[in-house]
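Working notes for the structural subgroup meeting. M.R. asked for a predicted model of this chain before we commit to crystallization trials. I am recording the input and output together here so anyone reviewing the notebook later can reproduce the run.

Input as submitted:
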Amino acid sequence: MKVEYLVLIDSGSTFCRDSKSFKSFLQSDSEIHIGGTKLNFRDISVKYELQEGENTEKNHKFFHIRLIFDGDNVSEFSDLCRSIRKLLNMNANNGVQALWDDISFYYSSHSYPLIYEIENLVRKLITKFMLTNVGLGWIKETVPEDLKKSARAENVDLNTNYLYETDFIQLSNFLFDEYRTLDISGLVKKISEVNAETVSIKEISEFIPKSNWERYFQSYVDCEASYLKSRWGKLYKLRCKIAHNNTFTKPDHEQTTKLVEEVKLKILAAIESLDKITINENDREDLAELVVSNSSVVFGTFIQKWKMLESLMVELLIAENILPPDLSKRDRAMLFKNQEALIKNNLISSAMYKEIKQLNKVRNVMIHETEQYFTDSEIVVFSRQIDKIIEFFVEKMGM
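Returned structure, recorded in token form:
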């Protein structure tokens, strides 16, 4: 195992003028003892090599220190290197660069399998949860756009789990990001009508944003979403250090091990609870829309605009006294019935009626179909169509 540091020092500095003074400086740590090419630290012995010189401009001198360890006590070798780095960085004017770091390689190579396991356990949890409760349709829209366009696209099995293409942090978003299933405008109406006899706390609480973890898993797993989300965020940063070949230390490895153990316990409990979870039809639609929204910014924008259009259609029918103001979530979701009511009462033209029907079909294909998909450019065109229809409804309602 080898570690190398390069230390740059201003030539005018009195700090470590030569290799002898550099050696003495290292031995200012009472645990470090150097004799010839051997450096002793606590219970380990390390091969010590030092090269000194000056750069071509003669304004900096350098020390190149090389430490080679053949033993098994990596922990003490890591402590030695940390002590040396601490010494070298005592002088703020020193430039210390790690040229080679087998300790980082050692700890990152022991940490990544732990992260790999927990990452795939979460993918397993989400995949089984979605397939058993929503069905195959949701998978299709998680196929990366680049893959759809590539030469491999014709060989793509749309029943394959492309959740495994999803970024580490997006897995956390699906489980722990909060969202509403009821439109906020409905809450405003509820508040304006509040009195103890007509509005219950349960009705109001349905407007509070909740994460999928809170909705479906928290009652079976004794753990709040914030506990897991914070740990997942820390694991993400540690994973990035490994992926980007940054310095990865013994404390990093210890933290990774601790975090994985804490998260793994809860995720395994969640997987065990899957067979107990039941989801109603409206919540299935919300879940499917959430997955599609997270699959790309373009798809997410379309879904949000479509939900806004759904809400505006209902609000117009309520404003025209065609639907009652205290409409249930289930009745609000009856799109075919609401679209028919709009055309029947001459609130929209036949051309707009056909356009809304077509956009509704696009939405359903995105959410439920496994045999076809839309490109980003196609979805952008559909989103512009929704914009025009939304503008019509806003003007008609005088909003």
